[in-house]
Amino acid sequence: MASATASNLPTPSNITPQSPSTSARAQFPPINIGTRRSALAQIQARSVEKALKDAYPHRTYNICAVLAQGDKDKVTPLQQLSQGENAKSLWTGELETMLEKGELDIIVHCLKDMPTQLPDNLILGSILEREDPRDALVISPRLPKNTTITTLPPNATIGTSSIRRAAQLRRLYSTLQFADLRGNVGTRLGKLDAEDSPFAAIILAAAGLKRLGMEDRISQYLSSDNGGMLHAVGQGALAIEIRKNDDAMKEMLNKIRCERTSRACSSERALLRALEGGCSVPIGVETTWRGGNGVATGTETAQDYDKNRKAVEDSQIKLDDQELVLKAIVVSVDGKDSVEHVSVQKVRSVEEAETMGRDVAKTLLEKGADKILEKINIEKQWAAKKKLEEISVAS
Ligand SMILES: NCc1[nH]cc(CCC(=O)O)c1CC(=O)O
Known about the structure:
Layout: H1 2-8, H2 20-27, E1 31-36, H3 39-55, E2 61-66, H4 69-72, H5 78-81, H6 93-101, E3 106-110, E4 122-127, E5 135-139, E6 157-159, H7 163-172, E7 177-179, H8 185-193, E8 201-205, H9 206-211, E9 220-222, E10 238-243, H10 247-253, H11 259-275, E11 283-290, H12 302-314, E12 323-331, E13 338-346, H13 350-394
Parallel strand pairs: 1-2, 1-3, 6-7, 6-8
Antiparallel strand pairs: 3-10, 4-10, 5-8, 5-9, 11-12, 12-13
């Protein structure tokens, strides 16, 4: 009889209790997640682990935090470190070797730190939803709380090792001074706050401060309409690097990617790739979305920024029908020469976004960015040559 047959089948009460996750855990090896060792890097890795866990709760995950070469050498100016063959793997070299060997399955990066060209057998597997991409002004605790980039004392020294940041600020605020400031976010804040600090303020990515829960240190959000600063390519977005042939991982990552961020950041990266800039070349960008019929967007004021961004993202207008606004600037190191361009366009895929980025690069070059970049490259070669001489004298 049907009922007798049915009662012979295993039911929840007569099988050995075993949750689906236990059996799956035995079946699948853990996913090894690589990251750098800073507090921020580890928070980022945990947020990716969480996103993966939510999407694939039956899998297990390990986070492996590795000390990068760029974190070890705190003396050589960044501009010189990013020279030659190994330039591109300064922050990611060790991790990439582990990924290639299969010791890791994914690496979590700040997209900003990822070179536009990856090793042959590795790819960018996924770009996650972007956090605030803007730069932020963080002032010394000795200055009045409402101090902004325009009300800093004359000749104030800004701590930053980013020539993109320094060049853009030199261009607009000629009295400001700049001094090298390296280390992870905590180190930089510590140097700003120290009794004998030479710095009146520093510039950091808002995303990093927000992820660290230190949003309250932000005195001013900088953007095209606020302080006249464009952020770095990919700033504020997390990216995952995987082995090119790891189809299973590609499939898994599809569940945690963000199409909007992928399109915006791909346009930025295509632009950078076409200009052949290394990480320290002064190229600033800003991508925002404009939602169809009159929905507000952009970067009108620091306060409106989040509101407008959310308004467009939550609007009924489909992503395909929204317009991507890509602003870009190339600045000479001294801030005296600059070329800007703004393009507004619907992009219906990552590929279309990349084409848009390349087109903007072409326009910038035609407008004179070629001369600015040429000069920077000559100066870089000089610095590299000097560094080589130093090394050969020392060894
Ligand atoms: N240069 C290091 C770096 N790489 C990414 C971030 C911030 C986080 C992000 O962009 O996602 C930072 C720190 C900073 O610039 O303040």
